[in-house]
Specification:
The complex is a heterodimer of chains A (about 70) and B (about 270). With about 70 residues, chain A is mainly beta. Chain A has one helix at about 20-25, and strands at about 1-5, 10, 35, 40, 55-65. Chain A is built from one helix and five strands; from the N terminus they run ββαβββ. Classes of the chains: A mainly beta (about 70), B alpha/beta (about 270). Strand 5 (about 55-65) of chain A pairs antiparallel with strand 4 (about 55-60) of chain B, so a sheet runs across the interface.
Amino acid sequence: MQLIVNGAQMDADEGTSVAELVDARAEGRRWVAVARNGDVVPRDLWASTVVRDGDSVEILVPTAGG
Amino acid sequence: MPTGDVVPALEREESDDPFVLGGETFTSRLVLGTGGVASLDALKRAISASGTQLVTVALRRVEASASGSLLDVLEQSGVRLLPNTAGCMTAREAVVTAGLAREAFETDWVKLEVIGDEDTLLPDPVELVDAAEQLVADGFSVLAYTNDDPITARRLADIGCAAVMPLGSPIGSGLGIRNPHNIALIRKLVQVPVVLDAGIGTASDAALAMELGCDAVLLASAVTRARHPERMALAMRHAVEGGRLALGAGRIPRRWHAQGSTQVAGTPQL
């Protein structure tokens, strides 16, 4: 299936969870936040939230800002 | 310059003029933005020199960021983090971004920015008030970045924002405080803390903000983009403290003509 992760199209297996997407990009990183189709996915739902074909996922981390 | 062991910022001694914001008490009245900094080492030294206890941070896509060491620096500094919603142009974007920040930083505090366009970066008051209402209802402590308009500021305070943060001039412009009268009006109109946010160019701007009655100053570029960020951070610390002291001390009235300070009586006839 096709996903858009941080603005880039990618292939993913059926049944992929948000937690797996985070681990692939931000493993070991603290203070990560995830949005799926424009809504917050709380951290305690990452493992149980399965993404679907066409989903748009944003995986965000802290950065410097004013 | 303070470059030795760093006392965690929030553990400093009590002040006799504390700054209470969102139920927390700070001894420093300078909030430092981290954007625009050239290196993490420069940021670390600037934070230390500024004496700040509250710094702003943002959320961005994981690829574009080297977050790990930034967080290390901020943790070592012992400062409280204030996530922003920079770049949001609608209430919906800002509300979702605040929700993401709450997840990432485990804080209900948010510096709410909802801008109207990318040239001026000026706040969009309609979207801002909408977002502030939603976030306050959802339990956030909202520090609202707003125009220097007293009526919008009053709306934001009435909604329940923890602070209103009027701009001195556009973000990053360094143009200082373009409408000091409005800033003073805002201070008189609302009961919540007023934080002058955006436009500070140099130390005298920060001192003026405090002399106008602002409870604190938030600045980023003036320090992070200065030729010597650490030195400017120290200058800002002194400026904020000086302006606050001057406000409390009470300035003399402005006079049309001079008034000598040496007594006339006893002047010799020569």
